């Protein structure tokens, strides 16, 4: 059983590292380069596709990380049930859902918009306003920066926890 616990901790930590890297790369490289595309239509189409695929991969990584860390805690012997596994799992879920939730609440309360997400409702064939696309990219970049910070904190907790366990 100790080998299974180590594998779960390792998989959870690696998934958190990938999640952190994905959000960091979106924030620093991918989203700023969308703004350099020649037309608003091209940027809007790229943003829609990027949003869909990045969300899919982010959800997979965060679910794998959370499930692995929760399983590591569940199958650990009583004397080895370290609370950092639960805190790291909670930070992983927070990194995945809190920034998007906060953005939606802010949009409904402060701005009064009913749109469900970045780039939502765009079909790609309609006339696209460049300022709206720029605002969506900037907004998503801020959300991903917060997500990268939260995921990075969870990753740091996992690394320190594994190091403290002696693995």
Automatic annotation (TrEMBL):
Membrane topology (UniProt): Multi-pass membrane protein
Gene Ontology terms describing biological process: autophagy of mitochondrion; macroautophagy
Membrane-traversing stretches: 84-103, 145-164
Subcellular location: Membrane
Keyword field: Membrane, Transmembrane, Transmembrane helix
Stretch forming the signal peptide: none
Main location: membrane
Xref: InterPro entries: ATG33
GO cellular component: mitochondrial outer membrane
Superkingdom, taxonomy of origin: Eukaryota
PANTHER family, A to Z: AUTOPHAGY-RELATED PROTEIN 33-RELATED
Family the entry assigns: Belongs to the ATG33 family.
This protein's name: DUF1772-domain-containing protein
Organism: Pseudovirgaria hyperparasitica
